[in-house]
Amino acid sequence: MPEVRVVCFDWGGVIVRICRNWREGCERAGLPIHEAAGTPEAMARRRAINAEHQVGRLACADFFAQVAHASDGLYTPEQIRCIHDAWLIEEYPRIDAVIDRLNATDGITTALLSNTNASHWARQHTGAGGFAAAARLKVRLASHELGLAKPDMAIYHTARERFGVSAEQIVFFDDLPENIEGARSAGWRACLIDPLGDTATQVEHHLLALGIDLGLTANRRAG
């Protein structure tokens, strides 16, 4: 089996903890939870708008306005922006150490392949409100910049070309089964991550099974 040359991460649910549903987003933003916004029909409308947002067809301001309109006046565009901002919660413990160790490993390139949007993407920094771990990844690819989103097969082929390696030399971590299936169909080695668990330890264990020992688990036990 070819050696791993690229270790590629999803962002939300692997590197950064995110809200998993509309109710959680409203709670974190300090906004009321209107039951009418939680119906299957309302969720389907938001998913359709979000799909356009994630591939760059909607600017963030237009996204906020369209989601507000789809809520039949239950939320204003400014309130949608607050929910959107609250969606990114915090980085998972030790995931930054995993990335740093991979960056220090000869022959490995770290990467990011995320379904995201411009306003969230801009928060990959070390300043206030930022999430610095993802910014340390060597190659960062975003759906809104590529005009493609997972699990569309085209995004995996585009990413592989950017990485400059064969599909079998990529290992990919994502928290959604459909994205893992897409990556595997493209020939990548892909590992499903449980976003409710310790994602750093999960990544370490998957890498160890592939022959990449970062030494972090042993060091933590020794400490």
**Main sheet, how many strands, which sense, barrel?**
5 strands, parallel
Q: Note the run of SSEs as H and E.
A: EEHHHHEHEHHEHHEHEHH
Helix content: 40-55%
Task: Work out the radius of gyration.
Answer: 18 Å
Count of spatially separate domains = 2
Number of helical runs?
12
Residue runs with pLDDT of under 50 for 5 or more positions:
none
Determine the strand fraction and express it as a percent band: 5-15%
Let me know the CATH homologous superfamily of the largest domain: HAD superfamily/HAD-like
Features:
five-stranded parallel sheet, 13% strand, 223 residues, two-stranded antiparallel ribbon, 2 domains, alpha/beta, Rossmann fold
Draw up the topology in text.
Elements: E1 6-9, E2 16-18, H1 22-29, H2 40-54, H3 60-70, H4 77-86, E3 88-91, H5 95-103, E4 109-114, H6 118-121, H7 132-135, E5 139-142, H8 143-146, H9 153-163, E6 170-174, H10 177-185, E7 189-192, H11 199-209, H12 216-222
Helix pairs in contact: 1-4, 2-3, 3-4
What's the short story on this structure?
It is built from twelve helices and seven strands.
What report would you give on this structure?
- The chain has 12 helices and 7 strands.
- By secondary structure, it is of the alpha/beta class.
- It has 2 domains: 6-17 and 92-222, HAD superfamily/HAD-like (Rossmann fold, 3-Layer(aba) Sandwich); 22-86.
- Strands 5-4-1-6-7 form a 5-stranded parallel sheet, with helices on both faces. A two-stranded antiparallel sheet has the order 2-3.
- Strand 6, helix 10 and strand 7 form a beta-alpha-beta unit.
- Helix 3 (60-70) crosses helix 4.
